[in-house]
Every structure is written in structure tokens, then in C-alpha cells.
Amino acid sequence: MIYVSPTLLLSARFAGCALSSSLRFLTITFCLLVCQSFTASSAATLPLGFSEVQVAGGLTRAAAMEFAPDGRLFVCLQDGQLRVIKNGALLTTPFLTVKVDSAGDRGLLGVAFDPNFSSNNFVYIYYTVPSVPAHNRLSRFTANGDVAEANSEVVLLDLDDLASSPAHNGGPIHFGPDGKLYVGTGFNEDPSNSLTLDNLLGKILRLNADGSIPTDNPFYGAAKGNNRAIWCLGLRNPFAIAFQPGTGLMLINDVGDFTWEEIDEGIAGSNYGWPISEGPTSDPRFRPPVFAYRHGSNSTTGCAIVGGTFYNPAANQFPTAYVGQYFFADYCSGWIRTLDLTRGAASDFATGIVFPLDLKVGGDGSLYYLSRGAAAVFKIQYQGCSSSTASSATRGLSPQAAAPVIETEENTDSAIAFDSMTLFRDPFPLTNPFNLGSDNHTGVILFAANLDLSVCEDRSTVTADAEDAQHKIYPLSVEFVGKIPGFESVTEVVLKLPDNLPENQPVLVSITWHQMTSNKVRIRIK
Known about the structure:
Elements (H helix, E strand, L loop, with lengths): L1 E2 L24 H7 L15 E7 L5 E6 L5 E5 L3 E6 L2 E2 L5 E2 L10 E6 L3 H4 L1 E8 L5 E10 L2 E2 L5 E8 L11 E3 L5 E5 L17 E5 L22 E4 L4 E6 L6 E5 L5 E6 L25 E4 L10 E6 L15 E5 L4 E6 L4 E6 L5 E6 L5 E5 L4 E7 L9 H4 L9 E2 L10 E3 L23 E7 L12 E6 L5 E12 L2 E10 L8 E9 L2 E2 L3 E5 L1
Antiparallel strand pairs: 1-36, 2-27, 3-4, 4-5, 5-6, 5-7, 8-9, 9-10, 10-11, 10-12, 13-14, 14-15, 15-16, 17-18, 18-19, 19-20, 21-22, 22-23, 23-24, 25-26, 26-27, 28-30, 29-30, 30-33, 31-32, 31-34, 32-33, 34-35, 34-36
């Protein structure tokens, strides 16, 4: 808990709940089965200044999407059709149709375009072959306009035979900045698959564009045959792979089991530890995630991490604060969040989406998301604010603007604050009798002056950090910033504290807004 001495009960916030295990969606498989025929329209809640439009509907059992270099958007349907959205319209004739086993997580699961697509017209797909037993396959086709040339399939790689379970097949395929093709494969419900070099399941694979195996792959000498394609291992169900334009940074969204969802940095030869390790780890054998979140039912938790993409378009449409951010989605909770990699902190972006699956940034600078529940692709765009509603914050603060001031106890640097899961204040003990979660010091509410967000600003314009006695900095996630009814001169700032923030010692917390940093205030966790 957090020791504080509030003088006024300005606000109390109840947080934390426990889901019964029968209500949890624990795998992508179950979620997909639930919504195969669910086609409710999406109505995302977005930050101020943003809006969305539906690009195309009728995409039943959609699984993934990718932009072609010429701007067309290709959408994989699990049942084997690869559909094309061109000039804002879904074309009637599929680009191709392959015979698939589409049970559970199986089917047509991934699409990628050759780096030299403009000259060779090569399109790659990842799908489940309906043989006995079934297996996943990587193939190449040649485009002829908006359809594939007849009989142009070239099989590049047949993966290992699948077990009877139809779950966890992975599917993302992407060319990296090195010109190699990266393939994410699921563990197929057999934990023994992920850590071995004897099969291709539960891994990231790396291939040449013609399907041959690069001799500089990290396990080329240790593995045999096709297993030399293994680039990293110890994954459960890598559902998304993204490369950041300009830096080449690779992130992998790995769907967890009962507790954690992970974003991992893709580095050659890495072992991510599944099934021995899930979520944050200090085990030297495994590479820890760059970010992980727990399963749960509030706005920052979920149960199945899916699409991910970097916001680094050729032409920025979003505010500059979003440039370089990593957008990622959770299938069960229906949200999209942003990850600031420099601070290791995530922030809310969109909520209320019906089973999001994939995210992509278009050449127009918009964010596109694929909604499984709505059977549609949507485009999120930034419209900004009209001159009549924009305040000084959106036009730029004056040079005389004052930095935010976090309220403290008189003649001290101790924060006037509340534990976000505590309904009591002094002289009552700050315990957490209503907390049903496992983390007893999730957040803290601070109160600040000189922090007046404009109508076009939200909490994403505010950042926060904590500093321990050794001057180590811990980025804090800003969960909410807003006025308190009846106390218009005071702004409530709700911060989520990281699990590694030291206990039994004071830490100093500050917030930054428009490049102005507040005073440092003292809190203590026990």
C-alpha cells in the first residue's frame, strides 16, 4: 500500500476485480469460435480529435491483413480466400482461394509481399493444408493484376504435422529490412514443441525469399534439415510481427496462457522461455519481454494480444506524440493501446472494438484495424480540433505558462495522494479490503494545479516518472487526467505503478506536460 496523508477526500476510485475462470477467454481459439457468426458493428471510443470510418465489410472469419506496396489492402479469410480492398472498395473476385483446414485457429492466416513486388509480383501466404494429418505451409503466388496467376503456387516450406488440437498456429509473415522472410509459428498445444530445435513449432523462422535457408541463421549448425530455419524459440503463439521503419526494430506479440501477454523484442538466437517462463522474468536463460500485461477485466488488461504495428508512416497524419509509438491490440478486451518504447509505458488509445485482430498503418498515415466481430476493416484518422474549440494547449502554450504543481502536505514534499484501490484516508489504515486483484499497489491518485488540458488533449500529453534513492528512473503509466467536479482548480492524475518500483523506501514522483516538469513529490510503498 501507499503511505500518504491526504487532508481532503477529493476523490476515491474503486479498482480491481476477479474474473471467474469460466468467464475468461484463455485462448484465441475459443474467442474465434465464439464470434464466427458474430457481425456486430464496431463503435470504437477514440481520443479527442480522432474519428473512424468503415473501409469494407463482409469479411467473414477474417484473420489478418497487409498492405501491398501499391496501396491495395489484402485480407486473409480463414476459410481460404484472400480478398482485395482497392480504392476503398472490396473487390468481388478473391485474389486467390486455397483449400484449407479452417478448424479452430487453422486456415489462411498470413500474407506478405516481396520487397521487389513492383517487378516480380510475388505474394506469399501461410495456410493450413487439409491433409491427414494437417500441417501449415508457406507458399508463393504471382499476381496478375487483382488476381493470382493460375497454377502459380510455389511451395516454399511445409511445416511439421499438427496434432489433433486445432489451436495456436501462429501465422504472421513479414519481410524484414534484411530482405529475409520471417514466419511466426504457434506451439499447437504441445509445450514440448517450443524449446526444441527438432521441429518448427513455437518459433520465429527466417528464410530467403525463395524458401531456402540463410546460412547465417543462429541455429544453422546445431539444427538439421528445415529446422535450420529457426531464428528464435521459446514462443507460445506469436500472433503478430512488426518491424519499425527506419530502425529495423522487431517486436513480436506472443499470446500467453493463464497470466501474461507479452511483447518481445525479436533478436536472433533468443529464447523467450515458454513454457518454463511467461511474462517478466529475471531468469538469465531467457530474454524477458519489453512489455507485458496481466490477464484481467479492466482497461489495461486482457487475455490475448493480437495485432501490432509501428506508427512511422512516410507522411504523419497523427499528432507528433504518436510518431514512433507501437500500437497493439487485445482480442478479448477489445482495446488498442500504444507503447512508448523509450519509457516502457503503455497508454490507452481505443476501446469498445468488437474482437480486433490485426493493425496496420496505411500510406495515408491512418491506422487501420481488422475487427473480427464486425467482419470489417476500419480506418482511424486524426481530424484535429476546429479553431473555435482549440485552446492554447493545442496552439502552443505561451512562454509565461507555468509548470504543473503536484499538491503536497504543508511544509513537506509528501504528496497529497490516494491509493487508487483504497476507499479510506487518515486516520483510517490504508488497507485494500476491496481489492480483488493480485497487485496491492497498482496505482496512486495525485492532485495537480496548472494542468489544464484542452478539449483536444487527453492523458497521452502527460507523462510521469518515479525516482528511487539510487536515482534510478521508473516510467509510470498515466491512466487518467481530468478535472474533479467542484474543484476546478485541481486536476486528478491517476498513475499506474510498475511492479518493480521499490518497496519500503520513499520514491520521488513527477509529471511532465508540454515539456514542463512538475515538482518532485514523495510517496512510499509498503
